[in-house]
Structure formats: C-alpha cells, structure tokens
Amino acid sequence: MATPSNKNSKSHKRNRRGHIGLNVPNIMLDQTTGEYRVAHRVSPSGVYNGKQVIEKK
C-alpha cells in the first residue's frame, strides 16, 4: 500500500482540485414569453419550443 512521504500543503491540494467547482445553470431568455428559464426545459408558463405543452390550472 502506497503511503505519502511528505505532507501536501493546502495550496498544493487546492491547486490540484481547481477544476472541481460549482456549475452555473444555463439560464436564457425565452423569446415567446419573455421569461427566464433553464435551457431545454419547459418555461414556468408551460411553453416549450414555441408550443403550449402544459396547461396551467
């Protein structure tokens, strides 16, 4: 079993993990409704790709 010979500093560890971070959601402005929504998702009003797919009660 491999064991480290020296302790890695905090900066060395954080530099190695620099690619691990928060993902920002892809928010876009819907052209038909004018609402902000996440890409490739149904808008809060039920419109997707310019068509009404969900009826609001």
Characterization of the model:
There is one protein chain. This protein has 57 residues and is of the alpha+beta class. Helix content is 12%, strand content 18%. It has a two-stranded antiparallel sheet. The N and C termini lie far apart (62 Å). The longest helix has 7 residues, at 10-16. The chain is rod-shaped, with a radius of gyration of 22 Å. Strand 3 (47-48) and strand 4 form a beta hairpin. It has one helix and four strands.
Strand order of the largest sheet: 1-2
Radius of gyration: 22 Å
Proportion in helices: 10-25%
Topology pattern, helix = H, strand = E: HEEEE
C-alpha geometry: rod-shaped
Largest sheet data: 2 strands, antiparallel
Q: Overall mean pLDDT score?
A: 85
> Total strand count, please?
4
User: Termini, distance in Å?
Assistant: 62 Å
Question: Proportion of β residues?
Answer: 15-25%
Strand-pairing-aware structural class: alpha+beta
Total helices: the number is: 1
Detail the poorly predicted runs.
none
GO molecular function, one term: structural constituent of ribosome
Biased composition (Basic residues): 9-19
Organism: Leuconostoc gasicomitatum
Protein name: Large ribosomal subunit protein bL32
